[in-house]
Amino acid sequence: MLTQLQIKINELLILYSRIIFEDNKESLVDELNKQRDDIMACIDKTNQIEELNIEEILIKAKEKIKSNKEFINKM
User: Fold this and answer.
1) Which end of the chain has fewer CB atoms at under 10 Å, N or C?
2) Is residue 50 a contact partner of residue 23, using CB atoms and an 8 Å limit?
3) Buried b (16+ CB within 10 A) or exposed e, 36-55
4) CA distance linking residue 26 with residue 56, whole number of Å
5) DSSP code of residue 23
6) pLDDT class for 16, splitting at 50, 70, 90?
7) CA 63 – CA 74 distance, rounded (Å)
8) What pLDDT score does 18 carry?
């Protein structure tokens, strides 16, 4: 997902440079707005993936703590 976000940001930078040098700025502004929306969607997806990974890590940590407690209680 981060690679997709990096690609979108590069496309956005190219678009900014086109706005500087081209005369037809209005159509480029529409394209710029679309690129911005695409980037925001990528960021949202990336955040959702990170939240899922954190939840998985917490679940595994709780399981490990539980198994360690059981091991200590058996000793």
Assistant:
1) C
2) no
3) eebbeebeeeeeeeeeeeee
4) 46
5) S
6) confident
7) 17
8) 76
Mean pLDDT, the chain, whole residue set: 78
| Token pair listed for 66 | 């539980």
∠ Cα 54 4 16 (to 5°): 125
Confirm whether pTM is higher than 0.90: no
Question: Which tens digits make up the pLDDT trace of 32-61?
Answer: 788 888 888 888 887 777 777 778 877 888
Burial class (CB in 10 A: 0-12, 13-18, 19+), 34: exposed
CB-based contact 50:40 (threshold 8 Å)? no
Residue carrying the six token digits 């000793």: 75
Cα dist. 23→6, 33, 46, 66 in Å?
27, 18, 35, 66
